[in-house]
């Protein structure tokens, strides 16, 4: 039953589902309770139960529309829970100033969630977003949920079912109390399409029962110089799925703007390199390539499985995006003890010694060193609009690409070329 796209988690969960006949139990009882001791028999429970995004869920969970939630310290419940919330992205970016007297923290080198939180606080981003005064850091770290029950939507019956929680462990990345509210923040430093509602719901329920002030659950995502903040409200506090998005804003620190002159200078000074013996990129979001570099800069090295499970990737996307980084010479890989590890090259690491503008232009240079991207950008500028895909394919066919032969492959890869060129040109508007 094992195949190349299966992870260790997939295999361990398959064994657990077989041993305890979990699907039959859920069919009969509506849910299945499982302990960390049972999970540990096959793989460490800590690695087997943390699924921050739908894409992280093991294959059996995805195929059967299942999710897992902690209910006590070391006990979990599996059912057809509607556990995730989709995210919107995009929108205008509000420019703010960074305090220029600080030397221990730099806006050009924010790679961890903790540094992103500190930067958002000291620059006034948090106060502006939550619209509260005298905002001070008060609570963070791991704590017990205490006891509460809630209703959650069952996607199979389309009804609400009750879940009881007793002293489950929760973690708050940042809690900031102002005159009016306690703002509780879940911080992430990776781009994602959705998030696990539990990460803001359990802290919301804990602190709603402890203090009289209103609680504001906030999701903060930081990547490549942009803070994206989402404020949620649970319209019915006992209903896990009652959250609504109150507002969403993007902020960044005032960098030197990039204009067309900067981009043309990179175009004119960049020399074309020989095509590497790495798959030509099939990774449409260049922002995710940057984000993967940021993550590897913070973590030093990660296995393929760690990238897949910690970030909003499936196995195939992990391969596409790590290969894209390798194609650009920013990421490399090694095999140790049966696992593949990814890490930044010297070229990749050097990006993080630069200020924000210089870093973006270095990314541009890394792309434009490759003929297919370079000539597509020049054609785009010549036409003053996106060239037709057929022209991009013609450029690619003349670029001596590694192992790209089928017409359908050229078509798919041409989407990546156009997408990355769009990213380059969009730098002028940020």
Folded structure, characterized:
This protein is α+β, with helices and mostly antiparallel strands and 430 residues long. The chain has 3 domains: 8-80; 86-253, no CATH class; 260-429, Arc Repressor Mutant, subunit A (Orthogonal Bundle). The protein is 39% helix and 26% strand. The chain is built from 17 helices and 17 strands. It has helices at residues 8-20, 22-29, 36-40, 45-48, 59-63, 113-122, 125-130, 198-208, 260-269, 286-299, 304-310, 315-327, 346-350, 356-368, 371-383, 389-397, 407-426; strands at residues 31-35, 67-72, 75-79, 84-86, 93-96, 136-144, 147-154, 159-166, 169-177, 181-188, 194-196, 214-223, 226-234, 243-253, 301-303, 331-336, 339-344. The strands form 5 sheets. It has a 7-stranded mixed sheet, with helices on both faces. The protein has a 3-stranded antiparallel sheet with strand order 1-3-2. Helix 15 (371-383) runs antiparallel to helix 16. The longest helix is centred in the last third of the chain and has 20 residues, at 407-426. The termini are far apart.
Task: Give me the secondary-structure topology.
Blueprint: H1 8-20, H2 22-29, E1 31-35, H3 36-40, H4 45-48, H5 59-63, E2 67-72, E3 75-79, E4 84-86, E5 93-96, H6 113-122, H7 125-130, E6 136-144, E7 147-154, E8 159-166, E9 169-177, E10 181-188, E11 194-196, H8 198-208, E12 214-223, E13 226-234, E14 243-253, H9 260-269, H10 286-299, E15 301-303, H11 304-310, H12 315-327, E16 331-336, E17 339-344, H13 346-350, H14 356-368, H15 371-383, H16 389-397, H17 407-426
Parallel strand pairs: 5-14, 10-12
Antiparallel strand pairs: 1-3, 2-3, 4-11, 6-9, 7-8, 9-10, 12-13, 13-14, 15-17, 16-17
Helix pairs in contact: 9-14, 10-12, 11-12, 15-16, 15-17, 16-17
